[in-house]
Write a structure and sequence with these properties.
The protein has 283 residues and is α/β, with parallel strands linked by helices. It has one domain: Divalent-metal-dependent TIM barrel enzymes (TIM Barrel). 40% of the residues lie in helices and 20% in strands. The protein contains nine helices and twelve strands. An eight-stranded parallel barrel has the order 1-2-3-4-7-8-9-12, surrounded by five helices. Strands 5-6 form a two-stranded antiparallel ribbon. β5 and β6 form a beta hairpin. It is globular and about 55 Å long. The two termini are 31 Å apart.
């Protein structure tokens, strides 16, 4: 099985509107990440741009449509298209979400949570095994941003992720913003969650912004919106985490209200500075 090994640097999610600025000069970026579903066509400008970037930078492919957490079988047509993309670009990393987004022939524009039970654990493991076998490469599984909890859950989320990794050999993608969003929404301590997280399996970290609103009871509600700079509490959690783990490939996501390239690059440079400080301490 092909390993997932990105450089232990900061990367960004690639946006086509940034291509000209990126291509004009070498960028201080460790890697780029793209959503697999945006490259499932046969050709055109998306592939021309990504092919150009791939020659100079490491690549992470991030899926959003496999519905790994569904209790239904995986969509084999979607999986076949995913394999074509991965075979074409040979990314250093492929990742997906611990979530579900489809039911029968209905596809939902969201990443929905699942209860953490023995039954869902077995199903997720079977799906991860299926994906890794077909792709011939290790995948990473990302912790979700959640807005509700299931009464029927019998396994802690961190234990659930650790067991999936142990049974399947997959890696984990630790989204620090998702941790902060979910912990705030559920009135939990994000720092305590991170201390329980099975970091020995983590091969990539995500950072992003979130928005703040109020729920029906008047309590704060955070939304994983990817439309702002990384917030200070998330930076603080990230720096504390990297101080314990050492450098790990770290991606800045910004998918909505996308800024000009220098703004996004500056976010990546801020993450890179934290990684470099951790590397110097380790040395």
């Amino acid at each position: 099985m092909k390993p997932s090994e990105l450089p232990r640097r900061a990367g960004v999610g690639f946006k086509p509107e940034h291509f000209a600025a990126i291509d004009a000069a070498s960028q201080p970026i460790g890697f780029f990440e793209v959503h697999a579903e945006n490259y499932m066509g046969a050709g055109g400008p998306p592939h021309a741009q990504l092919g150009r970037l791939r020659r100079d930078y490491a690549l992470s492919i991030h899926g959003v449509g496999l519905s790994v957490g569904s209790m239904q079988p995986l969509d084999t047509d979607h999986l076949a298209r995913l394999k074509i993309v991965c075979d074409r670009y040979e990314p250093e990393s492929f990742s997906e979400h611990l979530a579900w987004s489809s039911h029968d022939t209905t596809f939902l524009n969201d990443l929905l949570p699942l209860p953490y039970t023995e039954a869902t654990l077995a199903q997720v493991c079977a799906h991860v095994d299926q994906v890794q076998t077909l792709l011939g490469r290790r995948m990473l599984l990302e912790n979700p941003a959640t807005y509700l909890l299931f009464e029927e859950s019998t396994i802690e989320e961190t234990d659930f992720l650790a067991e999936v990794a142990r049974r399947t050999g997959c890696g984990l993608l630790l989204d620090v913003n998702n941790v902060f969003v979910a912990a705030t929404n559920h009135r939990m301590d994000p720092g305590a969650y991170l201390k329980r997280f099975p970091v020995q399996w983590v091969r990539e970290i995500h950072l992003s912004g979130h928005s703040e609103t109020i729920d029906d009871s008047g309590a704060p509600l955070l939304i994983d919106s990817h439309d702002t700079p990384v917030k200070d509490p998330v930076w603080e959690l990230y720096e504390e985490l990297i101080g314990r783990t050492g450098p790990i490939a770290s991606l800045v996501e910004w998918d909505n209200d996308v800024p000009e390239w220098p703004v996004l690059r500056a976010e990546a440079e801020a993450a890179d500075a934290i990684l470099k400080r951790a590397a110097r301490r380790a040395a």
